[in-house]
Design goal:
212 residues, alpha+beta, Nucleoside Triphosphate Pyrophosphohydrolase, 2 domains, 7-stranded mixed beta sheet, 36% strand
Length: 212
């Protein structure tokens, strides 16, 4: 493969000169697990052949729910087997998040997930940014939203029983949520991403909601 060292680089993802095979099914559970043959081509005509396995996560939304009048955020607690196995702390703190249904827009999914997980719909909703959550493992593509909510109306419990989902919303001052970043008290990547964004843009919240 080519060596980009010494060249002027733009900090941006870019298309790859790659051929990707049709997938072979490895397993089918809550999500599909598939295997691909990949050929990466170089400018000198050489090629590198790889085999890559992916968990097909698809489109996901993550919603940072903020009460700007009271300077607080609404978070949730939810059991995660991954947390239990990786850190021994399976009762994880998270933000509202969930998959985008077929035929549904990311915005509509964000509103639906707020209703399901914290019991209220956003008063305002602002799209922020999108990321591939774990590029080496899955094609899960997460779009983040900022939502204005009335924290006094948050439900005591949420989640869809039919999906085995049990979410427990709670409200904390923004300062307390941001402090958790410095102490390593939380490990959920979507939560960490959202709080880091909040730490950078906290002074712009009212401006963002006003423009929405």
């Amino acid at each position: 493969m080519s060596d980009d060292r010494g060249q002027s680089q733009t900090v941006s993802d870019r298309p790859a000169d790659a051929e990707v095979s049709t997938p072979a099914e490895i397993a089918q559970g809550f999500m599909r697990y598939q295997r691909f043959a990949v050929t990466l081509k170089d400018a000198d005509g050489s090629a590198q052949h790889q085999q890559r396995d992916l968990l097909r996560g698809g489109r996901v939304v993550a919603v940072l729910t903020v009460d700007p009048r009271h300077d607080c955020v609404v978070l949730i607690r939810q059991f995660r087997l991954s947390g239990q196995l990786a850190t021994g702390r399976g009762d994880m703190v998270e933000i509202v998040a969930g998959r985008v249904d077929a035929g549904e827009s990311a915005r509509d999914a964000a509103i639906r997930e707020c209703r399901e997980e914290i019991g209220i719909a956003p008063q305002q909703l602002v799209e922020l940014f999108s990321v591939i959550s774990t590029p080496g493992l899955t094609d899960e593509y997460v779009t983040f939203f900022l939502a204005a909510v009335d924290s006094s109306k948050v439900a005591a419990r949420g989640g869809l029983a039919g999906e085995g989902e049990d979410t427990r919303p709670f409200v904390v001052p923004i300062d307390d949520a941001l402090a958790a970043l410095d102490t390593g008290a939380v490990a959920n990547a979507l939560l960490v991403n959202a709080l880091q964004w909040l730490a950078r843009h906290r002074t712009r919240l009212r401006e963002l909601f006003k423009a929405a």
